[in-house]
Write a structure and sequence with these properties.
Blueprint lengths: L2 H9 L25 H19 L4 E2 L2 E2 L1 E4 L4 E4 L2 E3 L4 H22 L2 H6 L1 H17 L2 H9 L4 H26 L5 H9 L5 H21 L1 H7 L2 H4 L10 E4 L1 H4 L11 H4 L9 H5 L19 H13 L6 E4 L1 H6 L3 H6 L4 H23 L3 E7 L6 E2 L4 E12 L5 E8 L5 E3 L8 E4 L4 E11 L6 E11 L5 E10 L2
Antiparallel strand pairs: 1-2, 3-4, 4-5, 6-7, 8-10, 9-10, 10-14, 11-13, 11-15, 12-14, 15-16
Helix pairs in contact: 3-18, 5-7, 5-9, 7-9
């Protein structure tokens, strides 16, 4: 007998190892299908967002793709707009407007974005629909997963994953089609001629869609999405949220359809747990507002169905505010509280930004000009005896047609322009949506002005649109 065994016998201890799990294993959620007002609106938003996402890249605008973020050419085409990297201010404004819109919608009606238009919600709903069509309803899916492997199970699982993967790859292909012309991309896919980066992003985005919507689902909303964590900072007592009316529903319990609530002496909740079964994140709305709730309203739809069956009034679970529930307000009283100072401030700032952005786009010229001095030559004497400075003008034509630009310079008397690319009228041709560098030499008579730095101004005017852009620079005269 070893010392260890003897010691264990004397102390009465055992050699058995006890495993303590620090984290409970996540149970798979099988959302039950439902129908109703909020479910219909959720599917309306799914159709609208996906028709836009999958359809817009195939729309042509003139001789190009209507919406294309051409990173290689450094141009963004948004229907009739052509934006350059210098137009980053517009992208910044759009992002700020999107953020403020999210704050506004959240302050008014909670997590509308999460419940109806978030890509995670949308694709999870689509993948669940595919799963239901192939494997059956909630009970059938649970039974299939619990059964041993068989030819029937293998066939259904294989069919489901095949459709999932096909849809995910199509999604990845469409995503890349916003950055690479989708028709050319489609031809490359058919001919197996995809570039390495295009192939990588199609597979990566497809894999992300397949994994997030097919497997992770509610885990993304509960553990990965930061919005769920800071949403409470945008809520207040007058924010519309999915709420269980505890005063009306408790005490819950089974009740005969023929018995009234007063006779049964219990609440309207019949404790059917259907609100838990339809929840995509698996929470029990009867426990109050939880950060996992995405505000989809599925529990409200199924609860209304149950209330209809047992003969009770609808609205045990509904979209309302906490103040309305606590104070017993009517719908009219609740809606009057929506336009509170916080919402008015969000709305005012949002409208101001939108008006400013639209005004800026309306007043935006159809071309841009950048002036760069030749750093290698500060000033020099030309063959004709004149003093000259050398510049490069970058003219970016945002029009969808060829433009002719006339270049002038002023600020010093008798200042003349010389260039090998300008014609006799001092104009240069720039093709549609093209950026062109134009070398320009400015000349004055030697000794005409005192040494130093002198302010000048380039004026570039479109001969077709009559728009004019002015850019300042300096003319250096050496001592």
């Amino acid at each position: 007998m070893s010392k260890e065994q003897s010691s264990n016998e004397n102390t009465g201890t055992s050699n058995e190892t006890t495993v303590i799990n620090l984290y409970a294993a996540a149970e798979k959620i099988y959302p039950r299908s439902t129908f109703g007002f909020f479910t219909k609106w959720r599917w309306v938003m799914i159709w609208l967002t996906q028709l836009f996402f999958y359809g817009v890249p195939w729309i042509e605008w003139g001789n190009r793709q209507a919406l294309l973020f051409d990173l290689e050419a450094r141009r963004f085409y948004i229907f009739n707009l052509v934006l350059y990297p210098q137009d980053l201010i517009y992208l910044t404004a759009i992002l700020i407007i999107s953020a403020l819109s999210l704050f506004l919608f959240t302050a008014v009606a909670g997590r509308l974005w999460c419940g109806y238009t978030c890509p995670q919600t949308v694709y999870t709903e689509i993948f669940l629909w595919i799963e239901t069509k192939i494997e059956g309803d909630r009970a059938a899916r649970m039974k299939l997963d619990g059964a041993g492997m068989s030819s029937k199970k293998l066939l259904k699982k294989s069919a489901k994953h095949f459709v999932w993967i096909t849809f995910a790859l199509w999604t990845g292909f469409t995503f890349v089609g916003y950055f690479s012309p989708i028709r050319e991309l489609g031809t490359a896919v058919v001919n197996l001629g995809l570039g390495p980066w295009e192939a990588f992003w199609i597979l990566f985005y497809g894999f992300a869609t397949y994994g997030n919507a097919g497997f992770m689902r509610e885990q993304v909303c509960k553990y990965m999405c930061p919005y769920a964590r800071f949403q409470s900072a945008m809520f207040d007592g007058d924010t519309l949220i999915v709420t269980y009316d505890e005063k009306r529903g408790e005490p819950r319990g089974k009740v005969s359809q023929k018995a009234g609530l007063d006779t049964a002496q219990q609440g309207a909740c019949v404790d059917c747990s259907l609100c838990v079964q339809v929840c995509p994140t698996g929470i029990d709305i009867r426990k109050g507002l939880q950060y996992e709730c995405i505000g989809c309203g599925a529990c409200a739809d199924i609860c209304d169905t149950v209330m209809d069956k047992v003969g009770y009034d609808r609205g045990l679970v509904k979209y309302t505010t906490q103040n309305a529930v606590d104070n017993g307000w009517s719908r009219t009283q609740m809606l009057k509280r929506i336009m509170r100072p916080r919402v008015l401030i969000y709305t005012s700032v949002l409208l101001l930004l939108v008006i400013t952005l639209l005004t800026s786009l309306w007043l935006r010229t159809s071309f841009k000009v950048d002036v760069v001095r030749d750093r290698g030559v500060m000033a020099r004497l030309a063959d004709n005896g004149k003093l000259e400075n050398v510049y490069r003008l970058q003219i970016m034509n945002a029009n969808e047609s060829v433009q002719h630009y006339k270049i002038e310079a002023e600020g010093i008397d008798d200042l003349s322009i010389a260039s090998d690319v300008l014609n006799e009228n001092k104009t240069v041709t720039v093709n549609s949506a093209e950026s062109r560098w134009v070398p320009v030499r400015l000349q004055i008579a030697d000794g005409a002005i005192k040494p130093g730095s002198h302010a000048i101004e380039f004026k570039v005017k479109s001969q077709e649109t009559q728009e004019e852009v002015e850019e300042k620079s300096i003319f250096l005269v050496p001592r």
